[in-house]
Amino acid sequence: MGNNLVLAQDKTVTQKAQKDSLKPNDIDPLTPAKAAFYSAVLPGLGQAYNKKYWKIPIVYGAIGTSLYFYLDSNTKYNEVRDAYKRRLEGYNDDKFNYLDTNRLITAQKFYQRNRDLSTLFVLGFYALNIIDANVDAALKQFNIDENLSLRPSLSADYVTLRANVGLTLNYNF
């Protein structure tokens, strides 16, 4: 019975040593790719994979706002375009009867430009979502232990009696 206890303790010590030999920050080269893929499939999912939940409302707010302005500008563009087409056919019973034909053309260009810019913003925020998830996952694996540090330093210059401010890079082997 005593031997069994010793063997059980040795096994526990060996398992603990194996756990300690594995660092919690082991580098997984696929983590950034997974986060980027998840964000590409569903915006915000890569941020959830990285456990940065506070970024998800920002992602949906940016993409949603841009999408709202796209839809609004597209609706108004179609209304103005339809009114312009009816004017060319000789009708003057649209809701823009207070505008002349030149103003309708100007309004079409305005709403078309806003729609196109909103499209670029939607695509830009979507891409930024993917890039953010990728970079955040890569930086999560970055080595920030005490052996490598960058610290501000303040030293006195005894000749001029002034303080010198600088940065020191310390690397311990």
Compact summary:
With 173 residues, this protein is mainly alpha-helical. 63% of the residues lie in helices and 12% in strands. It has a two-stranded antiparallel ribbon.
Strand order of the largest sheet: 1-2
Low-confidence stretches at least 5 residues in length (pLDDT < 50)? 17-22
Structural class: mainly alpha
Supply Rg: 31 Å
- Quote the average pLDDT: 82
Largest sheet: 2 strands, antiparallel
Shape type = elongated
**Fraction of residues in H or I helices:** 55-70%
The fraction of residues in strands falls at 5-15%
**E-strand count:** 2
Number of helices: 5
What features would you describe in this structure?
The protein has 173 residues and is mostly helical. The protein has a domain at 27-144. 63% of the residues lie in helices and 12% in strands. The chain is built from five helices and two strands; from the N terminus they run H-H-H-H-H-E-E. It has helices at 2-21, 31-41, 45-49, 56-88, 101-140, and strands at residues 148-157, 162-171. A two-stranded antiparallel ribbon has the order 1-2. Strand 1 (148-157) and strand 2 (162-171) form a beta hairpin. Helix 2 packs antiparallel against helix 5 (101-140) and helix 4 (56-88) packs antiparallel against helix 5 (101-140). The longest helix has 40 residues, at 101-140. It starts with a helix and ends with a strand. Residues 29-173 form the DUF5683 domain. InterPro entries: DUF5683. This is DUF5683 domain-containing protein.
